[in-house]
Amino acid sequence: MNIQDYILEVCYQFFPYMAGAAFIFGVLYHLAIDQRSVQAFSTQFLSNDSLLKYGSNLFHVGIIMVFFGHIFGLLAPEWSYDWLITNEQKRELAILMGSAAGLVTLAGVLMMALRRATNPAVKANSRFGDWFFLALIILQVITGLLGTTETIRHDLDHYMNLDRWAQGLVILKGNAWTFLTDATVVHKIHIFLGFCMLVVFPFTKFMHMVAIPIRYILDYRPFKHQK
Fold first, then answer.
1. Does pTM top 0.90 for this prediction?
2. Cα angle 54-60-64, degrees, rounded to a multiple of 5
3. How many whole angstroms separate alpha carbon 188 and alpha carbon 12?
């Protein structure tokens, strides 16, 4: 194994599991121990302006579309959809929906970045971590959109190898990383940044996107409404 293959194996075989473990630990830590920090630094209390209103809505809608698009696009086994659409049709759907979701997310996050840079109260209460994660999101969305253009340029097998890699990780396939050997640089950067975001996500204010639904489920008791 040469040095390039070794780097690929570390980044796309071992690091995803490490990032997943860090994400789970971070979520459990905040839910069980440090619950107050989830929204402790929310800037909504400083200024509930139009940039936040529209930017936040666009970002949340876009990121939800991106999330479920990735779940279906990467993790759905072929037998679960081949009765309805072909792999080529799935690729075309990924290009169309991925582009739309990416542009919506980018518009939202740029509006939030503009607000953070121009609103005096928000700017004064912004920390390095806020700017860092915001820049990471913007870079991630841009590489995702560029990755979509690469998917257009390349053949179906190139697209399917991304699926094979992701599904290989899920079933603990030891050489799943080999499916990314011929992946474009943009795709590799996008994937690596995605797992980096997974590591830092639980320690940012965006943690509320996970914490609030989980808390609602855990706190929901049907018998409470029957009393």
1. no
2. 150
3. 9
